[in-house]
Amino acid sequence: MTASEQDRPESHKVFIALKFAPEVLQQLADMSASLEGSEVRRVAAGDIHLTLVPPWNESAIFSAVSKLSRVPEHHDSFELHFKHVSYGADPRHPRFLWVECLASSELGELRAALLTAFERSEQRPFRPHVTLARIRERGGRVARKHPIDRDLVLSQRITSVELMRSPPPGPSVTPCSRLCRYWAELSHNPS
User: What residue ranges define each of the domains in the chain, with the CATH number in brackets?
Assistant: First the structure.
């Protein structure tokens, strides 16, 4: 290892997400319970989340925590509505089982403020969703064998956002972890 490599701060792949109450996590995880096979990798209940700011490499974690702490003070808590569970993103060639969420103005404004605070940009349109399972191959066959396509009546009040660390790449299913167990609380004023 060179001297410059030793001086370089450790970088973590991080992202900003919404996490859910244990009872909501269990309901979401149960929606993928019928899926099986080597081509399907279910997301563990504790790892289910909604990504607001996609992953990036961050070496200044304390700076990221500071940025995160400033954003929610300008946003009230709000209700997140889980609308529909189905295969996606392309139903003909699915790669995920996911739950699409209502793209409310509160959710969109919070996401926009977080992207700005972290100097991130996203070219794709925001399609809020929660991934329940990843399908490696033969997604159409999996969807035909285990048809899942229904509307939901499920919601949760969102009161915080979290800085999360992505697991290292590889075949293991390492859970996402809260980085420094840090979350930023949204105002408790009802929207």
Answer: 11-185 (3.90.1140.10)
